[in-house]
Amino acid sequence: MHHKTQVGIVGAGPAGLMLGHLLHLNGIDSVIVENRSREYVIDRVRAGVLEQGTVDLLHAMGVGARLRQEGLRHDGVFISFLEQRHHINFGELTGGKAITVYGQNEVVKDLIEARIATSRPLYFEADHVSVDALDSSSPVIRFRHGDVDHELQCDVIAGCDGFHGVCRPSVPAGVLTMYERVYPFGWLGILAEAAPSCDELVYTLHERGFALFSMRSPTITRLYLQVPPDEPIERWSDEAIWQEMLTRMATRDGWKPSVGRIVQKSVTPMRSFVATPMRYGRLFLAGDAAHIVPPTGAKGLNLAASDVLVLARALKAFYENGQTEWLDTYSDVCLRRVWKAQRFSWWMTSTLHRAPDESAFDHQRQIADLDYLTSSRAAMTSLAEQYVGLPAEVSFESAGL
Ligand SMILES: Cc1cc2nc3c(=O)[nH]c(=O)nc-3n(C[C@H](O)[C@H](O)[C@H](O)COP(=O)(O)OP(=O)(O)OC[C@H]3O[C@@H](n4cnc5c(N)ncnc54)[C@H](O)[C@@H]3O)c2cc1C
């Protein structure tokens, strides 16, 4: 089956779905091609912290109704070390900005519903997805859906297919420069049926390593522990997980996470990765397809959102008046924000984790770093403005919102 569209989007994660909706709002056609099922894409447990700008964007796009009702607004965060929690008040330090805890799967669910309501095409469970003719004026996406082979001719392809997708590897060798840092630890994450015992996230540096207390809803707690990157999850019984969580997180004032039934557990390795430029010919990479951050700064999903805002602005100008300048600057504009988020995520990760090769000096320096952070208004302001999200590189109006 041969068909045509203006923008072919590979991947129905946050980047692909948000881009599709932004284009729809500007009257631009798109087809989204996803290799997993709708249920798999929705059930995948990943990010949960939305920056102020991401929340504002989802509202401006008209897909924030459930987010407004069910999202948990947090006006600050706790940093814990030497068994004491220290509060950083985002609202006070950033002129009223906040973060919102709302699971990535909820964001994806809302975006899929919005897509279906537009009746624009979204293919789940597409097999053998490939992209071709990327340096021509009509690049192609090929895939098999059911028993039918599809050839989709596009003006532009958006590679929103995540770190393991097909788009980035389809760029000829030598075009992209890759920057990478692999960390010598991973996160063991659990979802537990336990009411969160604190209203805000608690980041902990303990002698035994990093731990993070967070939540997904008023009844579900989300907790993480630093473990070796290749740690088999089978080595951790539920009892052992709770014992380690409580050892690392409990503070002298008697605070500790509430214990409950563990309903999901997994280990995720951590890396920082950037591929530049985020464009080759008529292929534009967005989100995890172009960059990965360690989750410590909660930036992955938010970067995906800011990339597609920049891409939507460029495509709007391209279709409205043939302007290519913003397509040409897409990669540079995105990378300014990407590298700042990379730096922040690396800093949060290095300051809060214990590296296997660190010295006693390194650990004392980490404690001093956290002591400074939690006692200096300037340092707290720096963390707060980065955590709630640096300003968008382009205005919502320029992307047609
Ligand atoms: C296990 C895990 C835990 C994470 N935890 C956090 C966290 O706590 N905080 C945080 O901020 N970030 C976290 N992240 C990062 C965050 O989830 C990502 O940054 C975010 O999902 C990026 O969105 P995306 O749309 O760019 O990519 P993705 O969400 O990866 O979406 C890409 C989509 O493309 C599809 N796809 C892949 N290959 C193909 C193909 N060949 N053809 C068609 N479709 C394809 C995929 O199935 C997927 O639906 C986590 C990531 C992982 C993997």
Write a compact overview of the structure shown.
The chain has 12 helices and 21 strands. It has 401 residues and is an alpha/beta fold. Strands 7-6-15-16-17-14-18-21 form an 8-stranded mixed sheet.
* Strand order of the biggest β-sheet: 7-6-15-16-17-14-18-21
User: What profile does the largest beta sheet have?
Assistant: 8 strands, mixed
Terminal CA distance reads 34 Å
Shape: globular
Ligands present = flavin-adenine dinucleotide
Number of E-state strands: 21
Folded structure, characterized:
The chain has 401 residues and is of the alpha/beta class. The strands form four sheets. The protein has an eight-stranded mixed sheet with strand order 7-6-15-16-17-14-18-21. A hairpin with a 2-residue loop joins strand 11 and strand 12. The model has no long low-confidence stretch (mean pLDDT 97). The site of flavin-adenine dinucleotide has 34 residues, from helix 1 and helix 8. Flavin-adenine dinucleotide binds next to helix 1 and helix 8.
Draw up the topology in text.
Blueprint: E1 2-4, E2 7-10, H1 14-25, E3 30-33, H2 38-43, E4 49-50, H3 52-60, H4 65-70, E5 72-74, E6 76-81, E7 84-89, H5 90-94, E8 99-101, H6 104-118, E9 122-123, E10 127-132, E11 140-145, E12 148-153, E13 156-159, E14 177-193, E15 202-206, E16 209-217, E17 220-227, H7 238-249, E18 261-276, E19 279-280, E20 283-285, E21 291-292, H8 300-321, H9 325-328, H10 330-352, H11 360-375, H12 377-387
Parallel strand pairs: 1-12, 2-3, 2-13, 3-9, 6-15, 13-20
Antiparallel strand pairs: 4-8, 5-8, 6-7, 10-11, 11-12, 14-17, 14-18, 15-16, 16-17, 18-21, 19-20
Helix pairs in contact: 1-6, 1-8, 8-10, 11-12
The structure holds flavin-adenine dinucleotide.
